[in-house]
Amino acid sequence: MKAMLLHSAPRGELTVENVPDPKCSDDGLIIKMAANGICRSDWHEWNGDWGWLGIVPYKYPMIPGHEGTGVVAEVGKNVKNWKVGDRVVPPVSVGCGTCPRCVDWSRHNMCETLRIFGYHIDGLFAEYAHAPDADYPGNLMKIPEELTDMAAIASFGCRYQTAYHGVVSQGEVKPGDKVAVWGLGGIGLVAVQVAASMGCYVIGIDIFDEKLELAKKVGAHAVVNAKKTDPVQAVKELTFQFNKQAGANVSIDALGIGETALNSVLCLTNRGRHVQIGLSTREENGMVALPIDVMTAMELEWHGTLTMPYPQYGQMMKHVLSGKLHPEQLVTKRVSLEEAPAILKSMTEFGTFGMEVVEF
Ligand SMILES: [Zn+2]
Ligand SMILES: [Zn+2]
Fold first, then answer.
1. What's the pLDDT tens digit per position in 72-119?
2. Distance 115 CA to ligand 2 centre (A)
3. Is pTM beyond 0.85 here?
4. Which of 5, 137, 165, 358 could form a disulfide linkage to 308, CB 3.0–4.6 angstroms apart?
5. What domains are defined for the chain?
6. H/E stretch holding 79
7. Three-state DSSP class for 210?
8. What angle is formed at CA 196 by the lines to CA 194 and CA 199, rounded to 5 degrees?
9. Residues near ligand 2 ion, CB 5 Å cutoff
């Protein structure tokens, strides 16, 4: 089969080559891939980031990719819940299905032996992929019949589920909340769309006008270009205009650089909630200074978020089927596997726009 290979990091060769097809395990299944998104996490992997988190490829060359969807092509002999022909999304992180966090907490995203496609197991930039432990309910999402655009569906595997969980569960947004979203890449745009669909007043912040325009299209009520104005001040003014109280109730850092993490905290009103979705780069090495006295005196809350615990899959699908969320609006480019390495590398200059997705 054809697959993308990352030969080393940081910034090693990325090639598309013929490799042996994956073998089906007794508890797993094989997916014939239909689409896989090019995610900023792939760029982080190419960049050699996240060693400080223990998230590094277990071997090289590695097949990257963790945001895909496809059709079941083969099932292992112990698998009972899936059959050939089912359309599935393997979520970015796979649970063991036996540890207390997978079983008692139903939080496979916190699994004691967390496996991420493209890091700890072979990834999804390939014509076929192996999904392990297929019967554990966290490890595959079933695609509702009504949804047909596989490039948009691929986003459920990473960006959509991550932003949805961040906004809904960790951000706990309510109708009427003022929500600031910092960084309008794929995750940020989903966060805008989800918060707007829930009746929030949403402000999107980025440094590229075309990303700000797209944010308006998917639901942002106001946008701020942080290159042209002091963005914290701008959020304070916009929120004051909205309800005569300055500051956001919920602020989301969808990027993960020191500046956006700090600005996100600084734009909050008293008792506001910050949600960190973006993970940092080699520049920060996971360390960012925050104004703890201000956070303490204002009773601010700081929340991390990682992918999505599986009991929420159904809620997200229902929300999409209700017609209030439109994943397909975020797909800006459909490309071949051969085009993907160059697009991935262009993320150094923030060269991508919305979700750029490989179709097989
Ligand atoms: Zn991703
Ligand atoms: Zn587990």
1. 999 999 999 999 999 999 999 999 999 999 999 999 999 999 899 999
2. 9
3. yes
4. 165
5. 2-158+308-359 (3.90.180.10), 161-304 (3.40.50.720)
6. none
7. helix
8. 115
9. 95-96, 99, 102, 111
